[in-house]
Amino acid sequence: MAASRSSSAGQWFSPTDPLKYEGPKYTPTSRKPFGYRWYDANRKVLGRRMEDQLRFAVCWWHTLVWPGSDPFGGETFLRPWHAAGGDPMQQAMQKVDIGFELFRLLDVPYFTFHDRDVAPEGATLRESNANLHRVGERLAQKIEESGVQLLWGTANLFSNRRYMAGAATNPDPEIFAYAAAQVKTALELTHALHGQNYVLWGGREGYETLLNTDLKREWDQLGRFLHLVVEHKHAIGFKGAILIEPKPCEPTKHQYDHDVASVFAFLKAHGLEREIKVNIEQNHAILAGHSFEHEIALANALGVFGSIDMNRGDDQLGWDTDQFPNNLPQMVLAFLEIMRGGGFTTGGVNFDAKLRRQSIDPDDLITAHAGAMDLCARALLIVERIIDDGALADHVEARYAGWDSRDGKAILKGKRSLADLAAQVDRKHGEPQPVSGRQEYLENLINSYI
Ligand SMILES: [Mn+2]
User: Fold this and answer.
1) Which residue in 40, 107, 115, 117 is the catalytic one?
2) Which of these, 101, 192, 280, 410, is most buried using a 10 Å CB contact count?
3) Any idea of the CA torsion for 5, 154, 183, 249, to the nearest 10 degrees?
4) From ligand 1's centre to the CA of 245, what distance in Å?
5) Is residue 395 part of a domain?
6) 110-114 and 56-59: which strand pairing?
7) pLDDT tens across 331-349, in order?
8) 50 burial class (0-12, 13-18, 19+ CB within 10 angstroms)?
9) What is the pTM of this model?
10) Are residues 354 and 299 in the same domain?
C-alpha cells in the first residue's frame, strides 16, 4: 500500500522501517522487536486481501491527543506537542507528522479523527474553522504522499462547556445551530479528504434526570438534526456512509443511542433507516449488556451494519476502559458475524483504544497497535477456517430445516391463520419432539479451530 517516504517526524519511534509480516515463528522476544506474526496484508482471506478485509484504522484522539490523564491525575505521557506554552497550531502540525509516521511504520491503511483532535478550537467558530482548514490542507498533502486514507471523520460535540446539556438535544436552539455549523464543516472536510464514512457519536445526547428534561422534544430535535446531516451529505455529493455509534451511558446517565436496537428504532421512527448505519464499539456493546457479536449480528440482520470500533473493556470494571483488543476467542466470534454478513463495505476496524497511562514510551503505541492488528488477523484466519469447514453453518442450517418445509414456508408467507395452525396440531395429534441445542458441542467445535 503506502509508498515509503522519508519522515519529517524525525526519530521519535525506534523502528525506522515499516513492520513486516515475519511468519509463524515470529515472537516479540525475537531479535526484531517489532513485526507481524499473522498480519500479512497481501494474503488472500475469504476472497479479499487481508488488508482489504480488515481495513485497519488508527484513531487520532487516543493515540495523539489523550495525555494519559485520569480523574485522579494529569498527564503522564509528556508528548512534545503537549508542552505548556507551545503554539497550538504548531503542535497540531507536529501531531500530523508523528501520526503519519506511526501509520507508515504500522503499514496501516486508514485513520480517523474528530475536528477538535486535529486542530485547536479558536475564540470563535470562524477561527476554529480556519484552524481546521489549515490542518486539513496538511492532512490532504500527507494523504496524497502516503496513500493512507481517511476511514471516517467526526465532530466533537461533547468536550466544550457549551455542550454540557447536549448538542442536538440541547434545550437551547442556539446550541443546536452551533453544533449544526460544526458538523457542516467537519462533514465537508471529511468529503474533501475522500473519507469513506462520517460518524456521529452522540456524546452528550442523553440526559441526567427527567426532572429537567423533555424527552419527547429532545428525541425530535435529534431526529431533525440527523435529517439535516443527511440532506447536507446529499447536497455536497458525499458518497460515504453516515454512521451513528451506539453507547448506553457515560457521559450521560441515559444516552438516546443506547445500543443497536434503540438506534434502529430511532432511525425507523424518523424515516432514516435507509440513510444511516451504525459504528459498533466492543466496549459500548458490553456496557449495554450485550456481547459485541450480538450487536454486529443484529445490525447485519437489520441492514444497518457499517463499521466497528475495535477495543475491549475490563471484566471487573463497569466503565469504558477502551483497552486494545486482546481476547482472541471473543474476537473470533465478532469477526465471524462480520464475515457472515459479507464483511466491510465502507467500514473497517478502527482501534478506538488507548494505552494504559503507565505505558509512556513512544514505542508502546507501536506495540499496542501492532499486537491488536496481529490478533485481528489471527482471528480472521480462524474465521476463514470456520467458514470453509462449514460444520457450524451446517449445524445451524439443520436446526432450522423445518422452516424450509412446505408447512414452514406457508406460515412465514402468511398463508396460515391461527385457526389453520390449531387445526394442524389437532390433525397430527402428536407432541413435537424437542432437539438438543448442543451448545457445548458447538463451543468445543469453535475451540477446535482456535
Ligand atoms: Mn469506548
Assistant:
1) 117
2) 280
3) -160
4) 10
5) no
6) parallel
7) 999 999 999 999 999 999 9
8) buried
9) 0.96
10) yes
